[in-house]
From TrEMBL:
It comes from Panagrolaimus davidi. InterPro entries: Patched_domain-protein, PTHD_SSD, SSD. This is SSD domain-containing protein. Residues 214-386 form the SSD domain. It is found in: Membrane. It holds the Pfam family Patched.
């Protein structure tokens, strides 16, 4: 388990594009994108989302100035001073013109309210929306913009490593997310007007990883609940069949611990074979714990039934541990194997017919089910053999005590019978002797 934990933490890497099915059109588009921006490695792409804290429009001068010094701010200043608007800038939505070149604003402005009237509008410094003023020049057909988005892209340069790109993207995220975070330029970002949100591939992968790790407490809680229910169920049935011993509790605990050990072994084997550890693999302990413990319960139930039969009809053969283990495995072994093979074949089919992340999940679950089957047929059967030997010794000791008690009772009964018989005969002889004299 410790080896698996270290290997998984070292090789943990999530692929947010791994949930798209094989052959999906999005994969082809992503491949073309990476050929353009990241032909030598991971391309850099960071999206910055700016919203006004008061919920007003982003077209106000101080807000635009804080976001970026661009054409809208220039045209607004010209309009406010009643100067001619620059003919080189036509700032309308969805297509604007800058120095004769058209460009789209649809990828940058969101939550718009357009006003197509012929009146002139300008951006008021004190209003959260554009206001009418017939003395001002017409700046844009946008009356309200809720959010402005910037996308920063950079092509992967020779000498960069993917970790460098990811560290930079996370640095941008932390710069806007945490006002006390110190970046390389040694300054913090704080605004009284804007709420800034950052989105990047690395940030999404970190969030997916964090969400996957959040399952660990649920696995722990579910494990302890299952431990409690397992112990209660096994102990109650053992009391009902008059087979209770403290070793039965060990069997109940091992039935829950064994699937988790199998998961640790399977994940360690995966990382040793070169598979990456993804957050989706955190689901495997829940699946294996729910499925694998069922086989242990079958073995415990059959073990108790065999013991009851052997105690009712004791012989030299059924007092051997080999006989009892063979009887248990001959009854439930085929069912356990069929169940394990069914789950493994289902995972094998899923590994070839779904997305990369689901393939990783299916491979991990397949290995876990195979390992838990091996552990149950070896470690768990071995534990049952050790406990069974103790139970057989206890049965022999109890049977020996019962024989000694029965022998003592027989001796006492014969003594009493002899005493009564002797007393009766003595009285007869005494009567005859008295009669003669």
């Amino acid at each position: 388990m410790i080896f698996a934990d270290k290997k998984c933490k070292k090789n943990q890497r999530d692929d947010i594009f791994g949930y798209s099915p094989y052959g999906a059109r999005a994969r082809t588009e992503l491949q073309r994108y990476e050929e353009f921006f990241g032909n030598t490695g991971l391309g850099m792409a960071v999206g910055i989302f700016a919203l006004a804290k008061d919920g007003g429009t982003m077209l106000r001068s101080e807000y635009l100035k804080e976001v970026i010094d661009q054409g809208f701010e220039i045209q607004t200043k010209l309009a406010e001073s009643n100067q001619p608007l620059s003919p080189k800038m036509h700032l309308h939505y969805p297509i604007s013109t800058l120095f004769g070149r058209e460009f789209s604003l649809q990828n940058n402005f969101f939550g718009l309210e357009l006003n197509n009237e012929t009146d002139n509008f300008f951006v008021s410094q004190n209003s959260t929306k554009l206001s009418k003023n017939r003395g001002k020049k017409h700046v844009t057909n946008m009356e309200y913009v809720k959010m402005v988005v910037f996308t920063l892209r950079a092509e992967h340069q020779i000498g960069w490593e993917d970790t460098d790109v990811k560290n930079f993207e996370m640095g941008v995220v932390e710069f806007f997310k945490n006002p006390y975070f110190l970046t390389l330029i040694r300054r913090n970002y704080h605004s009284k007007n804007l709420d800034i949100y950052v989105l990047s591939r690395t940030y999404v992968e970190e969030e997916v990883k964090r969400a996957g790790q959040s399952l660990i407490p649920y696995v722990s809680v579910g494990f302890f609940i299952m431990l409690f229910c397992s112990v209660i169920g096994v102990v109650v049935r053992a009391y009902y069949l008059k087979q209770h011993s403290t070793d039965k509790i060990l069997l109940a605990l091992a039935s829950c611990i064994l699937p988790l050990l199998a998961c640790g072994t399977a994940l360690a084997l995966m990382t040793a074979m070169g598979f990456r550890f993804s957050s989706i693999l955190c689901v495997i302990p829940l699946l294996v714990l729910a499925i694998g413990i069922d086989s242990s319960y079958l073995m415990i139930h059959e073990w108790q039934r065999i013991i009851q039969q052997c105690r009712e009809n004791p012989t030299h053969e059924n007092s051997q541990i080999e006989y009892r283990i063979a009887e248990v495995l001959s009854e439930v072994g085929p069912a356990i194997m069929i169940s394990a093979l069914t789950n493994m074949l289902a995972d094998a089919v899923g590994a070839f017919t779904s997305s990369p992340e689901i393939t990783l999940l299916c491979v991990g679950n397949l290995l876990s089910m195979a390992v838990v089957f091996i552990y149950q047929m070896t470690f768990y059967v071995g534990l049952m053999s050790l406990i069974g030997k103790k139970e057989i010794k206890a049965e022999e000791k109890k049977r020996k005590n019962q024989l000694e008690i029965e022998d003592a009772k027989n001796v006492e009964a014969r003594r009493i019978e002899f005493t009564v018989s002797f007393s009766f005969r003595f009285k007869i002889v005494q009567k005859k002797f008295t009669k003669n004299f």
